[in-house]
User: Fold this.
Amino acid sequence: MVRNVAGDMAALDAEDFYLLSGVEQGMRFSEWVRRDKLPDYADLTVEEVDYRLDRCLDRELVQRKTIQYEGYQLTFEGYDALALRTFSERDTIDGVGSPLGFGKEGDVYEVQSFKPLALKYHREGYTNFREVNREREYTADRNHVSWMYTARKAAEREYATMEALYPDISVPRPVDHNRHAIVMDKFDGVELGRAKLEPAQAVGVLDLVLRELTAAYERGWVHADMSEHNVAVAESGVTIFDWPQAVPTDHENAREFLERDVGNLVRYFGRKYPHEIPRDADIAAIADAIVDGRFETVRAVAKE
Ligand SMILES: Nc1ncnc2c1ncn2[C@@H]1O[C@H](COP(=O)(O)OP(=O)(O)OP(=O)(O)O)[C@@H](O)[C@H]1O
Ligand SMILES: [Mg+2]
Assistant:
């Protein structure tokens, strides 16, 4: 797990961030950045680089490896610190609060602003990252795209999709984006998988979610990772979140993803509320209705 660096921020100087940005710069060209290139990348003297490297190593914001040369790389903590610094310079956030959830591919914290918001750090490539380093102990510089690029691309995709969908579809309002991190409105409610619905409410909630998927499809998007873990349920309605893997409706596998999304949801409800949700709901027919923009209610498409 990646340590929460919010507590380190106050102790870091502007020069520490020059160093971190310098390492980030160098990582565009190689996985491990040569120490002797850092003064240039970071725009610091050799002595400053030595001093700042020690501070950043102590806090595990960078890591060192000696291959044919002495190289440095940001850690996820270092990358988080850079994103946090940017958000605070832009006045997007004033401070980081408690965790809201840790998923497979993202760490989410509550953040303070004029109102509570949510900050999601993308972690795609995190596990790989450790394994990759083990496997490639001595084969530097192939594949320097790695985790940093993967996580940044995922955040960019998620943010762009949310911007395309908000406010017509019930997604968290996108607020800001930098590197591998996005800031969005904090949603109300609990994950569908942990919500205690009255059986009588189950059909209504499933319908609400399918309506959102219909509206998203109409705007050109399929979620493609739909499950009870990526829907929040509140008194006020449902929120669909976690969009990095969404595909446009003209993607060659869009139909397959849509059916999988619908199937995941309907089967979840069918297991949990067997008396309320038709077990034989026709997934393909629901997907057809979504594609045609004529979804009405899940009961209407249940097989006879
Ligand atoms: N805007 C938000 N407001 C409040 N809580 C949130 C918000 N976004 C995410 N969370 C919480 O953080 C958890 C992880 O978020 P999300 O599903 O986006 O990340 P993920 O790591 O990509 O998930 P997965 O494990 O499905 O890949 C969510 O289950 C939810 O509890
Ligand atoms: Mg999720």
